[in-house]
Amino acid sequence: MKHRQPISGDLSAIERLCIDKGVRVTNQRRVVAMVLSECCDQPDIQELHRRVRKVDPRIALSTVYRTVRLLCNKGILNRRNLGMGRACVERISDRGHDYLVELQSGKIVEFRSNEIYRLLVGIAQRLGYRMVRHELQLYVVPADETCGSVQRDPLRTRPKFGN
Amino acid sequence: MKHRQPISGDLSAIERLCIDKGVRVTNQRRVVAMVLSECCDQPDIQELHRRVRKVDPRIALSTVYRTVRLLCNKGILNRRNLGMGRACVERISDRGHDYLVELQSGKIVEFRSNEIYRLLVGIAQRLGYRMVRHELQLYVVPADETCGSVQRDPLRTRPKFGN
DNA sequence: ATATATGCAAATTCTTTGCTGCTCG
DNA sequence: CGAGCAGCAAAGAATTTGCATATAT
Lengths: 163, 163
Description:
Two copies of one chain form a homodimer. By secondary structure, chain A is an alpha+beta fold. Helix content of chain A is 35%, strand content 22%. In chain A, the strands form two sheets. Chain A has a three-stranded mixed β-sheet. Chain A has a two-stranded antiparallel sheet with strand order 1-2. Chain A is globular. Chain B binds a DNA duplex through residues 1-4, 24-29, 45-46, 58-63, 65-67, 69, 156, 158-160, 162-163.
């Protein structure tokens, strides 16, 4: 590997978290952190890699996978399934956000509900647990839609634990 | 393909739905429907195939994939991601159910909340949509747990649209 | 009878890993 | 310096598909 100039600029929120948690900050991790910090959509790993490459084309896909996995383990990132065959990498935020997914178009809208959040805390408590986080997807069709509840598409989901 | 005796017995709830929706009922689909109707856990595709094979060992994995995809499209089944690297095939039920997932052990508890359900309907409405269904996972640790919100494990999620 | 399913194996796509040379702290 | 990274290519795992044959209606 040839020498490479460290990228410049302020640290992203994610980079800050890495330092706080004692994660070694390499140049490629910095790029991934930066790209993710600037996202206002929900990229999957391949898309994330595409964007990362625009900053530094030499960063390998496997590095992105490894970085995301590491930061997931550290509680900094989360890989989230949005159903309908989509998944994304997102920053873990304190209260979290949820997604409304339009079935026909695939359009995604983020939303939050403190009421739901509080109910969830209560449910966990009542069952003897403490809530760490949650994921909620709301699948919808336009209000005027006449059609029934026919699914848009099958979607696969591939699971398994990573090390 | 050699001739094969149709399996006997009453129709499962899922088979009933297939007939109603005009889905051609083949012997292998009947087996998949039956196995799923009898599940009281959350099997993934591979596990589903394993159980299907116990009934008829000649049913191929690809058939199970195709059947699940078809029934998802018909709004009879749903493939659901439980986070932490697990996904499952489940029957779509009217109001739906949600999952509480214990992060350490991976234990899964189903729950329902009418309050949350109502809130979701309202949220969709307010945004100009009609809710078709939702998915909600609640990740927890035992109440007495001292540890923070460190993630259990990275997990992959593989998305993509099917046919 | 005939449009559709199924099995099988090969092809895709997503993800991880082994190895070796680099780099952060 | 020295433990932990990044690249690359190859291995693995999950899922789909092409094609010839079998089957439901």
